[in-house]
Automatic annotation (TrEMBL), chains A, B, C, D:
Residues 39-58 bind DNA. It comes from the Bacteria. Residues 16-76 form the HTH tetR-type domain. The keyword Metal-binding does not apply. Keywords: DNA-binding, Transcription, Transcription regulation. It comes from Micromonospora musae. This is TetR/AcrR family transcriptional regulator.
Length: 211, 211, 211, 211
DNA sequence: TTATAATCGAGACGGTACGTCAAGTCTTCCA
DNA sequence: TGGAAGACTTGACGTACCGTCTCGATTATAA
């Protein structure tokens, strides 16, 4: 079990192979048939598992999918994620965002991530779990990189780092999820630059743009 | 008909009362039971209409809901929306965003708008229709306000207005949809200020912050 | 119009081409798709006619099919049917029954006639119309042939001719409709002989079997 | 399960209560609303059962109705039916046929039996099942009674008993199903007498009519 | 010869039922 | 006792027809 369970199934007796089979099947189906057509029944069949085994350990389809993502993210490594810190904030952010959109543009991940995102949009409980377990560490990494820049005097002293993070990633994620426009390299570059410099005209005071 | 139709139902013979009843029922049910539990069958029953009448004119549940929004937005007025322009850009944006989050926080609209947003997230065709018919005019209004400020020298000359719009609204919409945090007045104020000034420190050159 | 109509459609103005097209389409569909799958809608489409035109002139699917048969039977000739009368009753009956089963065994007529028969089984009104308009003349011909034989002393004097007719045709029709057994030449020959002679042993009094 | 099933539903797990409820509901509805208006949906609702449970075990409405009859006939007794044998064949046959038409004239059984009969008329597979499981034992009883009479010298030695059975019951069943005339006591008496004696005049050889 | 009124083709409508799919619960049997 | 299997009730799916109801566009009398 990972997220939320029903009553008190004896977690100790849980069969790990079934758990993995279910989560793998869920993620695979997500890619293959799309979110709307993924069914508990389908996952169970694909995983070679009884439906009850799913219902016993997960409260909803969204929770299964969530755990599938969790398994994936934990599978890669057990450690906390870190953003690159070359000292050049703009370059670092640009690099990270370019990697992000590459993933978002990858058809293998697009569908599943949309599924997760919209599931979160409808289920507050899931959103909380997401914030804590999946997004939490990542967001912390982002904040950390910005704090480092702030301490180096590259960011405004009174900057609210949470707002700062959202100012950079919010536009990109929103454009992706709502399909407001294409996720191109130029676009994310532009977002980073504009966010850093602000919309207002910068007084020409000799300060170089990159810093 | 508004969005997409099947083969060649004779639109001239279409019964307007049924159309309105369906869209109204759809919107009402969205509020009452939530998107996932809205069914075509339920809409038909509530509207006092045969299911076929829905299937005849709309290709999917999402399309019905989309048209329900369209009806609402057209019902309010037929004219293009305009953002306030007092000359004080920051004040104007703040006012607009405060109104926006008030609506997003209103339980009557929260559910339906999430439904629309996630439906768009999964259906590119619907996303295109949304971009053109619902979001289009609004986005144009936002761009217009920013252009006015730009011409007044309040915004950078080389600013990409599309990026600018997303930089302001993206964070807010993303926080709303992903439930990343509460939509408070302070938050949107902070977003506007930070977006205008940028993340970097502003050199103190005597230029007043507001202007 | 032929059978029963609703209120007072002006029969004089009725379009004969449509009537024929409907009845022909009905009969053809009966052969092609079977009774259960014949629909008013299908008939109308096939006949190139509006549904209302059918509903205006016929009260039910069964009535349409009935009229289709009526058209066919009237199409062949306008005169009353006559059974052969060579003087040899057994030979005549055998010949007629052999012709009958040939038709019943013909797949082109089997389906439609079953449709008519079962429709009659469920609809007393239709049964009455059938008795009067389709079966009536035929039955009269059968009775006439038997009466002729009776007058020639070949049949019992006190014989109830209605019972006699049913004794000969009843077994055959019942076997056909209920699929109790195959309709072979031997079978109908046997029915005729047995009906004429009765089940009891015939005393050998010199009377020849064929008379 | 009794007649035909689809793929491989595990019959061992089948719920007997549901089966009985379905068959009972089917038979009751047949009486109440008539065959044409009996729907799978209606049966399911009345039986307090999911539609799928019907579709899982029966291939068609006709099959359900057939099984309903089967349940009834098996419910009455498990033994093979026997016709009375007092030695007086004519009296015995008359008694049996009188009982038969009493049932056929009973509105409680008329509708359901017509339903079964017409369903058989359209579905060969069902007809085979009927011949084997419902009609079979009864027909055997009829043949047995006639054979007994034959051995007693009351029937012609070379008589085909199948033809004989049909000669007696065919006319009655045909008159019933096709509504060719009323099923009265006189009628069945007349059928029996005429069938036994034949249509031809009986030579007055001293043999008494009743034997 | 025109009007005028009905029938006609077409097909949208409110419905009912179809036969299918999946949800979530429950029961049986196996390891 | 957890799990595989799968039957169960429920409910929605999307489709086919039902029988009713307009809608112009033909007709075919009656003015």
């Amino acid at each position: 079990m990972t997220t939320r369970q029903r009553a008190t199934p004896n977690a100790a007796r849980r069969r790990e192979t079934s758990r993995r089979a279910i989560l793998t099947a869920a993620f695979d189906l997500l890619q293959e048939v799309g979110y709307a057509k993924v069914s508990i029944e389908g996952i169970a069949t694909r995983a070679g598992v009884g439906k009850q085994t799913i219902y016993r350990w997960w409260p909803s389809k969204g929770a299964v999918i969530f755990d599938a993502f969790l398994m994936l993210s934990e599978g890669s490594d057990g450690e906390a994620p870190v953003l690159p810190d070359t000292g050049d904030l703009e370059a670092d952010l640009t690099a990270v965002l370019r990697a992000t959109i590459e993933e978002l543009n990858d058809p293998r991940y697009d569908q599943p991530m949309r599924a997760l995102a919209t599931e979160i949009a409808h289920d507050p409980e899931l959103a909380a779990a997401y914030a804590e377990r999946l997004d939490g560490p990542l967001k912390e990494a982002k904040r950390r990189r910005l704090r480092s820049a702030q301490q180096a005097g590259q960011l405004a002293e009174d900057l609210d780092l949470d707002v700062a993070v959202e100012l950079i990633w919010g536009p990109v994620l929103n454009r992706w999820l709502q399909r407001t426009g294409p996720l191109t390299t130029q676009y994310v570059d532009s977002v980073v630059t504009t966010a850093l410099n602000g919309l207002r005209p910068r007084p020409t005071d000799g300060t170089p743009t990159r810093g």
